[in-house]
Known about the structure:
It is built from 8 helices and 5 strands. The longest helix has 15 residues, at 43-57. It has helices spanning 7-14, 21-32, 43-57, 59-72, 81-93, 99-111, 121-124, 142-155, and strands spanning 2-5, 38-42, 75-77, 115-117, 130-132. The chain has one domain (2-154): 5'-nuclease (Rossmann fold). The protein has 159 residues and is an alpha/beta fold. The chain is globular, with a radius of gyration of 15 Å. α7 (121-124) links the parallel β4 (115-117) and β5.
Amino acid sequence: MTAFLDTGALYGTLDRSDEHHLDAVSLVYQALKGKWGRVYTSNYVEIEATLLLGSRLGPSAARAVPSFLSKSGFKELLVDGPTHAKAVDLFIRDERLSLTDASSVLLMGVVGAKALLGFDTRSFAGRNVEVVGGGHWERLSDSEKKGVGAFERGSGKAP
């Protein structure tokens, strides 16, 4: 199985005031533990997350994104010229998608990812993808919540 880490989960993990913070942290924690097998993201997701975090929380929060991704073991896919052109076309045709989401749809197809670790049900509805995110924390066992809690408090280490 493969999964794709979306901006919402990355952002929510690093912003403790985000409405999805606990869900995001639990998604990332379980992804680090291998729950979804290989986890992918993209340079566009990284850019989007750094821009959002930087504008809302400042430069140190933005710098946490590339630092985390480089240590995570998640595979970062690069949106090249041809993929970008296809993403722009999809973005123009589908008003539900941002350009980043359009590139994610294409890359998920390339790697066969069927799980999106995030919260964007509107953009990914009807795309043969399970959006895993909302309510994720509540579905965890007490022992899983303990592990997530320790991770969230800044153990800083992948489980």
